[in-house]
Amino acid sequence: MKEKKQISIDTFNNFNTVNEINTEKFYNFLPTQNLNSSLGVAVAKFPKSYEDLTEQELAISDLDINAVCGVTYFKMYFPTSQNTQHRLLVYGDDNKVYINQLFSESPSLLWLFNLQFNSPPVSLSYKTDDTDSIILTSSDKMIVWHTNYSPYEIENVPIITSMCMNDEVLFCTIKDPAFKIWYATNLDAENVGQVTPESGYISLEDDLGYSRKILTFNEDIYVFRDYGISKINYIKNDITVSQVYLSNTKIYTDTVSVCGNVIMFMTKDGIYSFNGVRVTKTEVDITNLLPDTNDFTAASSLGQNYYLALRLNFNDDKSILCETGNYVNNALVVIDITDFSYQIIRGIDVKSLLPVKTEVFEKMLVTFNSLNNDKLGQIVDDSASFGTSLPKYWQSSELSNTFNTKLFTKLSIDASENVTFNLIYDDKNISFSTYKDGVNEFCFKILCKQIKLEISSNETQASVNKVVLDYYEY
């Protein structure tokens, strides 16, 4: 028998190159230097006023709806009073659009000008003639609201899938034919779908596929296609188009979002960033969890964080929260683009995400496909879903890089109470649970060549600081 050795795990992310101990799978833990509790979701709440930061939830339960299907945020500035009002538009399964003014004593939602849409509207906020305006367009109609007047409807407009503006020119991708990009000068939405001296279309028929999403980034216009990215140069009706990226796999265009100084997006084989020149695959390693299709993904960004709702195959026999019923998505991946560390929140079926930034607060709002779809939620730092603790899990790869026979004798753990540690070896396992906060020690005898470690907890706030495994190698 040789001298005693130790395997020490004092960092729990995938960037641990010193000890060569990698994370094989994790969820509802934030794996950084330590294992800490992940983010969670709760009912969205908003301050009563700029002075009174007591938060209250919107009175969605007072509406005659069974599900919140969409939400939009925009600001209205009033030059006379030099006052800015923050507004939320909520779209319910009754097809009605409701409005609420944030920083208001009243949490009620009012039906906005009797507006109804057949599906959640795509929106674009902009300013024209010193007036804040918003376009709402869906499968059945387009509504333009210059907020100093009543909204009005524009007829005979193509079904718009995304919009952006650049230098007072409105650009739109449309559902059919999806290879056309419509534009209208002076932000004149009435001309979308018509060829006039002030409007027209760009036809993108090449090997990049259909045009799905258009956006401005660093004052340039980019179109995300099924299999690539195109750049549009527009100068006074002089239009040129160039291909900047060709993808080998399909781009999920609902995942495209500007985050800090890059555009983030996901394809069938991973998560990528685009800086306007080069596309780079990130080190966010979820490829082995991705199913063949992920057609109901959604993403948005707040600050330096990219939030991606999707469906993942965790390849186990567990059913966590939303997974106990019918669900569309079951996970939310949150990526910090400063270092591409990330966390996976499992068990929530997110439909859409909406960032809200005011002078007083910023938060990410969420709607849901299945469980809790009658609520408007927000991302919170409590590792729970509407008060229910999110079960936490972390699994290592093989802890040893040799196949010599070893005798494992002791497990030392610096962790919070009620965290379970499971050692897996030779189709067997042995488990220990911490009985106090701080250092816990467990002695045993396991003779094997390879061993893995699982860490789990049902506690809302659970943490692990360090794990040390003693062994002798023959």
The number of helical elements comes to: 0
Average pLDDT, to the nearest integer? Answer: 93
Number of separate strands: 43
Helix content: under 10%
Largest sheet: 5 strands, antiparallel
How would you describe the overall organization of this protein?
With 474 residues, the chain is mainly β. A hairpin with a 2-residue loop joins strand 21 (220-225) and strand 22. The radius of gyration is 26 Å and the shape is globular. The mean pLDDT is 93.
Task: Please name the defining characteristics of this protein.
2 domains, globular, five-stranded antiparallel β-sheet, 43 strands, Jelly Rolls, 0% helix, mainly beta, 474 residues
Provide a short characterization of the protein structure:
This protein has about 475 residues and is an all-beta fold. The protein contains no helices and 43 strands.
SSE diagram, text form:
Elements: E1 4-9, E2 23-27, E3 29-31, E4 35-37, E5 40-43, E6 45-47, E7 55-57, E8 68-78, E9 83-92, E10 96-101, E11 110-116, E12 122-128, E13 131-137, E14 142-146, E15 152-154, E16 160-166, E17 169-174, E18 180-185, E19 199-203, E20 211-217, E21 220-225, E22 228-235, E23 238-246, E24 251-259, E25 262-267, E26 270-274, E27 279-281, E28 298-302, E29 305-310, E30 331-336, E31 341-346, E32 350-357, E33 362-368, E34 377-380, E35 384-385, E36 388-389, E37 392-396, E38 406-415, E39 420-425, E40 428-433, E41 438-448, E42 452-457, E43 464-473
Antiparallel strand pairs: 1-43, 2-37, 3-4, 5-34, 6-7, 8-9, 9-10, 10-11, 12-13, 13-14, 14-15, 16-17, 17-18, 18-19, 20-21, 21-22, 22-23, 24-25, 25-26, 26-27, 28-29, 29-30, 30-31, 32-33, 33-34, 35-36, 37-42, 38-41, 38-43, 39-40, 39-42
